UniProtKB/TrEMBL annotation:
Major location category of this protein: cytoplasm
Protein name as annotated: Phosphoheptose isomerase
Keyword Cell membrane on entry: no
Regions annotated as coiled coil: none
Originating gene: gmhA
GO MF term list: carbohydrate derivative binding; D-sedoheptulose 7-phosphate isomerase activity; zinc ion binding
Keyword Transmembrane helix: no
Annotated InterPro entries: GmhA/DiaA, Phosphoheptose_Isoase, SIS_dom, SIS_dom_sf, SIS_GmhA/DiaA_subfam
Length: 196
């Protein structure tokens, strides 16, 4: 196959995944944005986590909260649990890699905070343990996933929201996760402008 054709196929598959996601995720995206807006209006914060590309997404989200997205507004409280290498390496070394996010949530999580948990497979144990730790703190969870939802889907409780991208390719799911994150940031900005 010629390489130009591969490029065209990547674009076509990404567009197709996003169209399929729009068909099933409009309502849950609005629910997720409302959860973020309500938390920050109540003086709570958003914690985020994920592995690999999803760690990048967790940080992308927190930087848009802390700094800004597209509108001028106050900085919003968010912490990506993927950034402090001293903390991450010590938890992994002293306990296990599975606890790198949950241990931070045990220390930082408060009733009313929200966890943005990102996993394309839904099967990353450290992300799933973060969901359990968040529930133990009285936090709600926004789960960004894909494929068949993995074990993550079975951990979610009433009050949580699952944004599962209907695709099997990790790359296509990640590309759509970023779009979901940007939608949430934009909706939160709109809510702040009209109700904040
Ligand atoms: O970015 C990519 C692939 O596009 C990889 O770094 C990917 O994020 C890693 O393999 C992750 O460990 C996958 O974890 P998950 O999405 O299944 O939770
Ligand atoms: Zn990637």
């Amino acid at each position: 196959m010629n390489l130009q054709t591969r490029i065209q196929q990547h674009f076509a598959a990404s567009i197709d995944t996003k169209q399929k996601a729009l068909a099933v995720l409009q309502e849950p995206i609005l629910t997720a944005a409302t959860m973020v807006f309500t938390a920050v209006q109540n003086g709570n914060k958003i914690l985020s986590c994920g592995n690999g590309g999803s760690a990048g997404d967790a940080q992308h989200f927190s930087s848009e909260m802390l700094n800004r997205f597209e509108q001028e507004r106050r900085g919003l409280p968010a912490i990506a649990l993927t950034t402090d290498t001293s903390t991450l390496t010590s938890i992994a070394n002293d306990y296990s890699y599975e606890r790198v996010f949950s241990r931070q949530i045990e220390a930082l999580g408060r009733n009313g905070d929200v966890l943005l948990a990102i996993s394309t497979s839904g099967n990353s144990t450290n992300v799933n343990r973060a969901i359990d730790a968040a529930h133990d703190c009285g936090m709600q969870v926004i789960a960004l996933s894909g494929k068949a939802g993995g074990s993550m889907k079975d951990l979610l409780q009433a009050g949580d929201v699952e944004l599962r991208v209907p695709a099997d390719s990790t790359a296509r799911i990640q590309e759509t996760h970023l779009l979901l994150i940007h939608c949430i940031c934009d909706l939160v900005d709109q809510m702040l402008l009209t109700q904040g």
